[in-house]
Amino acid sequence: MSEFYNRLKEVASPRIGLGCMNLSHGYGHYVPEEQGIRALNDAFEMGYRHFDTATLYGGTANESLLGKALASKRRELLLASKCGMAMDPVSGKRVIDGRPDTLRRQCEESLTRLKTDHLDLYYLHRMDRQVPIEESVGALGRLVEQGKLRAVGLSEISADTLRKAHAEYPVAAVQSEYSLWTRNPEIALSQACQELGTALVAFSPLGRGFLSGAIHAHTAYAEGDMRAGMPRFNGDNLTHNLTLLAHFNAMANDLEMTPAQLALAWVKAQGDHVIPIPGSRSVSHMQENLYAEQVVLSEVDLAQLNKMMLPGEIAGARYNEAQQADIDTEEFV
Question: Which helix (H) or strand (E) holds 247?
Fold first, then answer.
């Protein structure tokens, strides 16, 4: 197995990690710094050991937050961040740049913000279509050799791109959106990860709040909430998609767990190589999510869940056209 799995064992991490983006980025209503620091410390105390951030999140604010909250616990953590996509300080727009010099510079800046001399896992956040993937991954590989990283990861890429990258330098983990209602990794990526000994780190395993019951027919998205521009979260698409939740919610109730716990248990059941990293601003939700570590679904339950929310039943794409142009993952026809 990869360095990623070895480090998980080293820090006695549960399978479920913590996606930290929500504290500073993505969904609006970001928490004040002191509240964020308390939340991250509470997450550590309740058992989380795998913390995931990125240069992009909050225009570097999320990395700084983790550095302030977790630096004293560094030896007990698996700390992951991402490079290759950042906010331009002048335009305020996100910029994808996979050139080796950029990745090296961003790595140094991430280490400073996170108050550490190395990262356990560093992802290329998005593939730069102007730079061969081998060049970007090769640059990250050199950073491993220099001791600044322990492992290299990729995000939102296809199985073919993973194989090209892995031939250049071992890819320890691939981060991809994966949940009961977003099953794109099942097209080819999950199998490729298994073949290569690469972890599949599932972000948004709760469907960006859809599966946990956070989204309703009249949900008003806050300014800056990315879901406002995602087709499946709006209009007639959302109205249709909400009808698919009734059976799922009833099943969670019958099994005496929350919908969020059932959704996470399903992701965990997709293979030992799959690592879910739900995110939340709420400490109570972090605790609720971590409880799913103990849930083991029966074969009957899994078979029932597998028939729910199939790709052809979901109305609307998961990304809008602009967002889709930035990713390399396989899509269902």
Answer: helix 245-254
**pLDDT tens-digit profile of 99-134?**
999 999 999 999 999 999 999 999 999 999 999 999
For residue 28, what pLDDT is reported? Answer: 79
CA distance 139 to 97: 13
User: Are 269 and 300 within 8 A, CB to CB?
Assistant: no
Q: How far is CA 268 from CA 10, 50, 127, 302, 307, in A?
A: 20, 15, 26, 11, 17
Q: Are 288 and 257 contacting, i.e. CB atoms less than 8 angstroms apart?
A: no
CATH number, domain of 300, equals 3.20.20.100
Asked if 238 contacts 217 with a C-beta cutoff of 8 angstroms, the reply is: yes
Q: Write the DSSP assignment of 24-62 as a string of letters.
A: TSSSS-PPPHHHHHHHHHHHHHHT--EEE--STGGGGHH
Supply 238's token pair. 């959302």
Amino acid 223 reads E
pLDDT tens digits for 38-70?
999 999 999 999 999 999 999 999 999 999 999
Range of the domain at 56: 3-324
Number of domains in the chain: 1
* Amino acid of residue 332: F
pLDDT at 1: 55
For residue 18, the model assigns a pLDDT of 98
Residue identified by tokens 């308390």 is 38
Q: Is residue 260 part of a domain?
A: yes
* 331 in a structural domain: no
Give pLDDT, residue 324: 94
Q: Which residues are catalytic?
A: 57
Query: What local confidence, expressed as pLDDT, does residue 12 receive?
Result: 86
Helix (H, G, I), strand (E, B) or coil at 226: helix
Alpha-carbon span 7 to 151, nearest angstrom: 10
Residues in the chain with pLDDT values less than 50 = none
Residue with tokens 């293979």: 271
pTM of the full structure: 0.97
DSSP letters for 124-145: ESS--TTS-HHHHHHHHHHHHH
